[in-house]
Amino acid sequence: MVHILENGEHFRADNREPEPEHEGFGSGFSINDHLDLLIEVLKRLDGRSLGAAACVCRQWCAIARNDSLWEHLCFRHVSPPPVGVRPVVSALGGYRRLYMVCVRPVLSRLKRRRLGGESEVVRRVWNQHEVELSLSLFCVEYYERLLVGGGRVAGDSPSSSLKFLCMPVNV
Amino acid sequence: MEHLSYVKPLYAPFLCFTHHSFSLYSLSISISPHISTSIHNIFIFSYSYSPSTHPHFYMGPTPYNSSNSSSSACSSSTKPPPPQPPDQMDHLLAGAGYKVRSNDLTQVAERLEHLETVMVKSSPVDISDIGNDAVYYNPTDLASWVDSLLTELNPNVSGSGSGSGSGSGSGFVSGSGPAYVSDPVMNDMNNVYGEFGQQVVTPIEEDVSIRLVHVLMTCAEAVQRGDMSLAGLLIDDLQGLLGRVNSGCGIGKVGSFFVDALSRRVVNSPQNGVVQVDLSAYENEILYHHYYEACPYLKFAHFTANQAILEAFDGQDCVHVIDFNLMQGLQWPALIQALALRPGGPPLLRLTGIGPPSLDGRDSLREIGLKLAELARSVNVRFAFRGVAASRLDDVKPWMLQVSPKEAVAVNSIMQLHKLLGPGGPRGPPVDLVLDWIRDLNPRILMVVEQESNHNQPEFLDRFTESLYYYSTMFDSLDACTAQPEKTLAELYIQREICNVVCCEGSARVERHEPLVRWRERLTGAGFAPLHLGSNAFKQARMLLTLFSAEGYSVEENEGCLTLGWHSRPLIAASAWQAIPKPSVVTTGR
C-alpha cells in the first residue's frame, strides 16, 4: 500500500505484495502498476527524496536510477533549459553523477553563502553561469578520473579536484 | 650592536635629548589576524646610544627608506651577543648598553610611548628642568629610568607595576590595526580566536614573532652586504626563535621556510653552484597538482583564461591553442567541454602543449595528449594534439608549433613569462625574443597570468622583504585549506618558489615575478594591445571563489584585468592581449 501525500515528498510503501489485494483501500490501487505516474511523481522530488526512493525496492531503484529523472532534477529550474547538454553529460558520467558530485555541493555552497546556514537545499533558480561552471567542474573531474584510473568510472566519490566542494565551509 | 641600525622601521618618531644623543624608535605592537599585515604594522623597537660630543636633534617622523641614515648615529660593536634565555636581559639591547629584561620589553615600550606623549603635551618649562642636568638618571636600566621620568613629569602616573601583558594595551595599538585582545591566562603557545573569528596571538608569542621578523630582516641585510659570518650567527638565533613560536601556522611556518632559504644561501653561495635541487618532472607534477587542489589560484587562472579564449574563438571553425606549460593539461577539459556546448557546434581544436622533456623514458606530453583526445572524443569535439618538449621557453622556435595561417591562434601562458626575465644572451633578454615570435604568430589572444608581486628587484633585501610579505599572505590563504596531503604538498610547492627567489641568482633564479603594471608596459612595448576580460569572466571567477571554503578571497577588476587576492592584497593577475600586426610584414592570404 502506498500513501502519497500532496507534494509527493513523503511516502511510504509496502511492496511485499505487489498484487492488488488489500482491504480498506477500495479499488486496490498500486502505484507499481502505473509506472508512468510513479515517474511523474519522482520527477518532482528533490535529490534527497529521490535517493531515498531508490532504496525502497528493486523496482523503484531501477526507476530512480534512470538518468532522465536526474536530468530533470538538475536543470528543471534553469531557464532557458540548456540545449545539447545531454550527450556531453552522458559522456562525462551521467546526470546522476553530475548531481551528486557537482550540482548538489555547488548549490548548497552557493545557497549557504546567500542565506547563511540552513541545512536543507531549497529549490532555487539557477542562472546560466552556475550551470556552465558546474559543467566545467564536472568535466575537470571526469578528466582527473581519466588521469588516475585509465577510464574507469567507478564509485560515487568525486575525484580530488572537487574535494574542495565537499569540505566544510569555514564561515 | 651594529645590526640594529639596519632594521628598517616603517615609522620612526625620533626623540632626542640634548646631552645624550639618544634616538628612540617607538615600538608599537598591533595584533593583526594576518601575519602579512602584522609585518607591515611592526615598528621595530631598537635604539642606539652613542655618547657623542655634539648633540643631535631629530624630531618628527622619518620616511620609510631613510632608516640607513640613522646608522650614522649608531654605535658599533664588534662582537655579536650570544643568544639569551627569555627572562634574562635582552641581548640585542644589551649590545647597545641597555639592560632590559626580555619579559619587560613590551611594558617598557608602552611606558616609553607614554613618556613621549607626556613630554609632547607638557609645557617646555617642565621639560627644561630635566634638560638642565647633565645626567638625571642612568638610562642603562631603562625600565626604571622611564618610570622615574614619568613620575617626574606627571606625579599622577603610578610607578611601574609588575606584570604580564599590558591589560587593554590602549597605548600600544597603532591606529591602523584591529583591537588588541590580550588574554593573560593563555600563556602557552595556543592561539586564541578573537572577535573577528581569526587568530589572536598571545603576548609572549607575539614578542617572539616580532623578534623573528626583526632578525630575519637583519639577516637578509647581512647577506646583502656579504657579511656571511654574521648571517650565520643570526640564522642560529632564528632557529632558536623558531623553536619558540608556533610553527604550525602564521609567521612560524612562513618564517621557517625563509630561514631555511636563507641558511641555504649562506651555506652555499649562489655563485658556487646548485643551491636548489631540481625535481624530476614527475615530482613537479605532483606538487603542482596538489597546489591546484589546495588553493584556487590555479583554478582561477585556468577558468579565466578559458573564458577569454572562448570569447576570442567566437565564430571560428579552426582554432589552435598553444600552452606554454602543459603539465597535466588540467586547464583544457573545461575548454573542450565549453567548445562542445557552444551554439553552432564545436570547431576543430588543435592543442600544442609545451613541456619539459621527460628524462625517464615516458613521454608524458604524449600521454596527456592521449587523455585529452579521449575526452574530446567522448564529447564529439574534433581534436588534434601536438607536444613540444623544451626545457626552456626560449628554446622553442615558432616553426615547431606549426601554426597554419587559416586558424585562429590563442597563446596561453600561466606563470611562465616571468621565467624569461633573467639575464639574456647577446640579442637581449629572452622575454623580448619570445614576445617577438608570439607576435609573429598573430594570435587572436595572448593570455598572461602572473604572480602580482615584485620579486625581480636588483637589491636582495628588497626582494626578500617583498617576498616575505607576498608569501605570508599566500600562506594565510592556504590556512583555510584543511585537506591533507594537499595542503602540505602545496606548501612544498610554494616553498620551492621561495627558495628560488631567496637563494638563487643569475640564470638559476627563474622566479622573477613582476607586477601587473610592469607586464603592461612590457607587453604594450612589445606590440600588444590589451583586451578587456569581460563581465562573464568576472562573474565566473567570483562564483568559483564562493565555492571555496574560505571567506577571504577577493576578485577585483583592474583596467580590464582580473586579480585574485586574499583580503584585498592581490596575489595573482590575469590579463588578455591581442597582437598588433607589424606594419612592415606583408600579410599573405589572410
Topology:
The complex is a heterodimer of chains A (171) and B (590).
Chain A: E1 2-4, E2 11-13, H1 35-43, H2 47-53, H3 58-64, H4 67-75, H5 85-92, H6 95-115, H7 128-149, H8 163-166
Antiparallel strand pairs in A: 1-2
Chain B: E1 21-24, H1 35-40, E2 47-50, H2 91-95, H3 105-121, H4 124-132, H5 142-153, E3 192-193, E4 199-200, H6 203-225, H7 228-244, H8 250-267, H9 281-294, H10 297-312, E5 318-323, H11 332-340, E6 348-355, H12 364-378, E7 383-389, E8 408-414, H13 430-441, E9 445-451, H14 460-478, H15 486-503, H16 516-525, E10 528-531, H17 535-546, E11 553-558, E12 561-566, E13 569-579
Helix pairs in contact in B: 3-5, 6-7, 6-8, 6-14, 7-8, 8-14, 8-15, 9-15, 10-11, 10-17, 14-15
What would you say this structure looks like, in words?
The complex is a heterodimer of chains A (171) and B (590). Chain A has 171 residues and is mainly alpha-helical. The N terminus of chain A is likely disordered. In chain A, strand 1 and strand 2 form a beta hairpin. Chain A is globular, with a radius of gyration of 18 Å. In chain A, helix 6 packs across helix 7. In chain A, 51% of the residues lie in helices and 4% in strands. Chain B is an alpha/beta fold and 590 residues long. Chain B starts with 20 loop residues before the first strand and ends in an 11-residue tail after the last strand. Chain B has 17 helices and 13 strands. In chain B, helix 9 packs across helix 15 and helix 10 packs antiparallel against helix 17. The interface between A and B is large, with 37 and 39 residues.
